[in-house]
């Protein structure tokens, strides 16, 4: 290869290298430009005020980015920058995707720091800025914004001072005050004059005395021979530079002590109550008296010498009074839990307020207060109420009412229970008996529901309004006792285990109505004449008159009421059918009802009349209990009669009950 070819070849290579370098540089420039254009976010930060803007400095605290002057270039969406300037408080700015491209940042100037102090340490000094108290003590430090301020310091015993402070941003200021004591005057006098005066333990003269002192608190002692010393604290302050005192000295005292029984009374000297021990005047007659409520007072006359320490003794006798105690029932009386006996009583009691407690079975306990008198007998007469009557007097509702049991009063009158021989459809167990009454009753308007009975047993649906059935006579009696207990009434039935032991005839507790009471309500109450049925004497039924065995039971039992419909095949909710003329529901129909009486076939003569009875509750014994009324299973007209009665020995699906209680 000749020299020309070599030169040409070298030139080509040089141009190739230059082209490669130029292309690479262009690629880099393009890459940087694309990075700048698409990946970097730019923000402009404007700082205020102008003074801070001129010297503002920026620093990236977090995030991928950098600052060029007041421009932030951020790779990513989140960053934190710090903006600062000399004499200004640095501020951090958080940047995210919602931050606008123009960011305005206002910096607050640094406060001035003021340190003030007193040349003399005074912990009670008070510091004020422009009249506002902001600190206490010998030293005071505060941060102030730019401006001019009135700094003042005060103390009760020193003259106040103030100065004007000019604060610039970031400035450190200090100031020391030299307070001047306030100068005051004491003007001290006494009766008698000439008493020695000590101030803080140093004798300074005799009264009358006028002294000049710096502000402060001084212990002053005034003493004279033959008189009790007086100790006082005199305070001279900026607000009270003159203190005047005129001390009334008292003659030297003696000490009186009293040994007393009982303690807790009042000790007096010359009719003025005193402490025990007491400082009393010497060389003077003293009437010392000790008294306490409920005791005879005692007194003693004494005279003590100056400085004498004397003791007197008082042992008081109890003062008693007569109290006559009575009550409307045989009640036992207790005082402070101690039995005193049964009324009537005559008690001798101490003449302090006494609380007498009266207790009687079946009655609410009552407490009465009395203050016996030593000069005249007091009388206390307690009117006890049964718990039931007490609750009624308080206006509290009957528990029975709260569970939906409503009762109506029934004024019982003489009538003949049973049925006459001429009554169509009568049974031979319906013996007639004349009955009279001396006590009226309350009778529930409805048969007891399953829901009400469930409240007693704690089992079952308390919202059910179907009449409860399949309960024994004894369980029905237990229900009435439970109801009595809820209302504070003495239970009518005495039951032990599964045995009825006896009944409390005088109780007003709930019970089952007697057969006589049930019949009186069903066919005599408020009627011009006795009726054969609850609704009257008509042996023809109208549909939906009551819940009997209607046509829906045909084919399921032997007897049904022909062509009768009442819309219920089984038990109906209590009160589903119209009430009788007195407001009582289901006396006929729905379910039969247990009554109080034992079941017994009564013997009667040819006239079908048993002996008359008063408040008749049935025979003393029998085989089972009487069941009255008819039910949804009753399909024979003769069994719908009010006089019809059945024997019940076991619970049944159509036997329930209603309740009664004596009114008086």
Count of extended strands: 45
Question: Given the C-alpha coordinates, what overall shape results?
Answer: flat
Rg result: 55 Å
Architecture of the largest domain, according to CATH? Answer: Alpha-Beta Complex
| Total individual domains | 7
Q: What CATH first level of the largest domain would be assigned?
A: Alpha Beta
CATH fold call of the largest domain: paralog of FGE (formylglycine-generating enzyme)
Which spans of ≥5 residues are poorly predicted at pLDDT below 50? Answer: 31-38
Bin the helical content: 10-25%
Instruction: Output the CATH homologous superfamily of the largest domain.
Output: paralog of FGE (formylglycine-generating enzyme)
How much β-strand is present in the residues? 35-45%
- Major beta sheet summary: 5 strands, mixed
Tally of individual helices: 7
Assign the structural class, choosing from mainly alpha, mainly beta, alpha/beta, alpha+beta, or little secondary structure. mainly beta
- Give the N-terminus to C-terminus distance in angstroms: 153 Å
Description:
- This protein has 664 residues and is mainly beta.
- It has 7 domains: 1-37; 39-106, Immunoglobulin-like (Sandwich), CATH 2.60.40; 112-177, Carboxypeptidase-like, regulatory domain (Immunoglobulin-like, Sandwich); 183-248, Carboxypeptidase-like, regulatory domain (Immunoglobulin-like), CATH 2.60.40.1120; 253-315, Immunoglobulin-like (Sandwich), CATH 2.60.40.1120; 320-384, Immunoglobulin-like (Sandwich), CATH 2.60.40.1120; 395-664, Alpha-Beta Complex (paralog of FGE (formylglycine-generating enzyme)), CATH 3.90.1580.
- The chain is built from 7 helices and 45 strands.
- A hairpin with a 2-residue loop joins strand 2 and strand 3.
């Amino acid at each position: 290869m000749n020299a020309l070819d070599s030169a040409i070849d070298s030139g080509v290579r040089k141009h190739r290298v230059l082209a490669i370098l130029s292309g690479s540089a262009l690629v880099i420039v393009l890459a940087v430009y694309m990075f700048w254009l698409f990946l970097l976010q730019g923000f402009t930060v404007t700082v205020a005020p102008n003074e801070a803007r001129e010297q503002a400095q920026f620093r990236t605290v977090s995030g991928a980015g950098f600052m060029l002057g007041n421009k932030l270039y951020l790779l990513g969406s989140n960053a934190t920058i710090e903006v600062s300037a000399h004499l200004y408080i640095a501020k951090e700015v958080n940047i995210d995707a919602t931050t606008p491209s123009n960011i305005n940042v206002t910096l607050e100037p640094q406060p001035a720091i003021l340190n003030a102090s007193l040349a003399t340490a005074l912990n009670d000094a008070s510091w004020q800025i422009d009249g506002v108290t902001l600190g206490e003590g010998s030293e005071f430090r505060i941060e102030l914004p730019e401006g001019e301020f009135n700094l003042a310091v005060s103390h009760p015993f020193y003259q106040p001072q103030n100065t004007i402070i000019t604060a610039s941003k970031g400035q450190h200021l200090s100031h020391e005050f030299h307070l001047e004591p306030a100068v005051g005057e004491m003007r001290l006098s006494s009766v008698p004059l000439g008493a020695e005066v000590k101030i803080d333990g140093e004798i300074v003269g005799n009264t009358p005395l006028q002294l000049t002192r710096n502000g402060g608190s001084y212990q002053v002692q005034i003493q004279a021979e033959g008189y009790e010393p007086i100790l006082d604290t005199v305070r001279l302050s900026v607000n009270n530079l003159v203190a005047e005192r005129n001390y009334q000295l008292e003659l030297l005292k003696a000490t009186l002590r009293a040994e007393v029984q009982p303690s807790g009374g009042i000790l007096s000297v010359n009719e003025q109550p005193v402490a025990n021990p007491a400082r009393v005047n010497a060389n003077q007659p003293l009437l010392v008296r000790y008294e306490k409520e409920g005791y005879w007072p005692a007194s003693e006359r004494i005279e003590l010498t100056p400085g004498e320490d004397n003791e007197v003794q008082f042992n008081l006798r109890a003062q008693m009074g007569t109290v006559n105690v009575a009550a409307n029932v045989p009640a036992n009386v207790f005082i402070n839990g101690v039995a005193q006996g049964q009324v009537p009583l005559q008690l001798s009691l101490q003449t302090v307020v006494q609380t007498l407690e009266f207790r009687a079975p079946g009655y609410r306990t009552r407490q009465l207060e009395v203050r016996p008198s030593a000069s005249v007998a007091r009388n206390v007469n307690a009117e006890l109420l049964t718990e039931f009557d007490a609750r009624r007097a308080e206006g509290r509702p009957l528990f029975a009412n709260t569970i939906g049991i409503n009762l109506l009063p029934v004024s019982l009158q003489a009538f003949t229970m049973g049925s006459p021989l001429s009554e169509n459809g009568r049974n031979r167990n319906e013996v007639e008996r004349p009955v009279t009454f001396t006590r009226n009753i309350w009778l529930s308007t409805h048969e007891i529901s399953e829901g009400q009975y469930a409240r007693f047993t704690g089992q079952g649906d308390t919202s059910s309004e179907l009449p409860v059935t399949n309960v024994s006579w004894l369980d029905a009696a237990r229900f009435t006792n439970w109801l009595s207990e809820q209302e504070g009434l003495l239970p009518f039935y005495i039951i032990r285990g599964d045995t009825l032991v006896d009944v409390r005839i005088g109780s007003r507790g709930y019970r089952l109505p007697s057969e006589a009471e049930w019949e009186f309500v069903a066919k005599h109450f408020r009627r011009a004449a006795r009726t054969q049925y609850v609704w009257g004497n008509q042996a023809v039924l109208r549909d939906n008159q009551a819940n009997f065995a209607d046509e829906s039971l045909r084919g399921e039992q032997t007897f049904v009421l022909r062509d009768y419909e009442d819309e219920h095949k089984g038990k109906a909710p209590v009160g589903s059918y119209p009430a009788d003329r007195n407001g009582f529901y289901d006396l006929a129909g729905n379910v039969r009802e247990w009554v109080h009486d034992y079941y017994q076939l009564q013997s009667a003569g040819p006239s079908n009349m048993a002996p008359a009875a008063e408040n008749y509750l049935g025979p003393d014994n029998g085989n089972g209990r009487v069941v009255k009324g008819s039910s949804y299973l009753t399909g024979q007209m003769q069994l719908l009669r009010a006089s019809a009665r059945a024997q019940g020995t076991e619970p049944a699906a159509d036997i329930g009950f209603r309740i009664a209680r004596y009114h008086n």
